[in-house]
Amino acid sequence: MKLLSAIMSVLGAILVAGGSAAHAHEMPNSVVYLDFGSQALGMELVLPATELRYALPDETAQRLDHPTRADSAVLAAYILDHLAVTTSDKRSWRLEILTLSPSTQAGHTDVRVELLATPPPGAALDHLILRDSLVTHSVMSHTILVFARRGAGGEGTDAPRLIGALQNPVSDLSVDRPTNTSGGIAPAFRLGARHIAEGVDHLLFLITLMLTAPLAPREGRWCERRSIGGAVRHMALIASAFTLGHSLTLILSAGLNLQLPQAPVEIAIAVSIGVAALQAWRPLFGAREAWVACGFGLIHGLAFAAVVATRLDTPLERAWTILGFNLGVEAAQLVVVVFVAPLLVVLSRTSAYGGGRKIAATMSVTLACGWALQRVLGVETGLEAFVQTAAHLWPVVLVTGVLAIVLTLLRGAFSESARP
């Protein structure tokens, strides 16, 4: 527990120190505002320069604060290449960029773009498909939040209404014209579930920490197997502790509308993955993974809060969004535990689990370091493409795990039948 306290103190110092260095700006999500009119759709894009630089040529990326006319032309072409609106039968709307300009506040630069989307002849504005891969095609952890500011009849609203989100590999969003301006819990629920399902950093931390749940420490090593019931209970405790930690900071940070520094939060999340990987190698905290999960859940909650609090102005809208987002996160985590728990319990009964656990832990800490270098320091590590490919292979991993379980059970059954 002393080691855990020391680590949390270091993380606290990182957050405090990084806050002043990063000017306490928000986590850099992109935002799309949709304004439904009677004959056309108005669109406003807010693109954070810190993320946009990963997707643009070096010359343009370095001048986003003060772009030249040539830079604006490059940026406009990039936007039209990665943004589209279509009908359900795939007919394209006409997009026209009206304005494109940088906006700098507290040292944080956004590129703001206003567009007009006109439907093809005979198409209604009541339903459309938004296709947006801006930044997300280069930064897989980037999130695009989609809001409606005007709905039925084109009336304005006091606060934008969250209607969906996009994150790699998903780039299409089905959008219906809002019939009212009240906050909805369903889009936030989907956002929370998707944030876990496609959030490599959060999944990596949770699964890495669960690697040792079927085991018990003895003399500084993972050398004893828990009972099946004990392993399942321990996994449930880890997931619940993680939930408790991030729920607290999610509610406090988003409820108080705090602006969060990007760099120290992302460094802390990378550190949490590294600590979980070290714990999978050796029991640094004994069997106290739940305490580790709760402590680092507080840090992950800061990243969650940055997603749901962005651009939400009213307490009611934030409350609905926070509730829906948190429920979505918990539902996705439950699915992960349901699939991962039996796989780990069965594989922990095999002689190969010790080596496999260490290989998985080594991969986790390597990816965490690469992710931190690229996302925080702007250093190209080459691991982003690998992580993106690996994230898309989860069905293969799941099928392989199920086959391993079946083969293990069959071998055990044959061994029992062969005994005299």
Total beta-strand segments: 11
Radius of gyration: 23 Å
How is the largest sheet built, in terms of strand order? 4-5-2-1-7-8
Helical amount: 40-55%
Structural domain tally: 2
Structural class: alpha+beta
How many distinct helices? 13
* Beta-strand fraction estimate: 15-25%
Poorly predicted tracts of residues:
1-27, 152-158, 413-420
Q: Please, could you describe this protein's structure?
A:
Residues 1-27, 152-158 and 413-420 have low confidence and may be disordered. Strand 4 and strand 5 (108-118) form a beta hairpin. The protein has two domains: 30-182, no CATH class; 190-418, no CATH class. The protein has 13 helices and eleven strands. With 420 residues, it is of the alpha+beta class. The chain has helices at residues 2-21, 49-52, 58-61, 69-82, 185-197, 200-210, 228-255, 262-281, 289-309, 315-347, 353-376, 383-391, 394-418; strands spanning 30-36, 41-48, 83-86, 94-105, 108-118, 127-132, 144-150, 161-166, 172-176, 215-218, 221-225. The longest helix is centred in the C-terminal third of the chain and has 33 residues, at 315-347. The strands form three sheets. Strands 4-5-2-1-7-8 form a six-stranded mixed β-sheet. A three-stranded antiparallel β-sheet has the order 3-6-9.
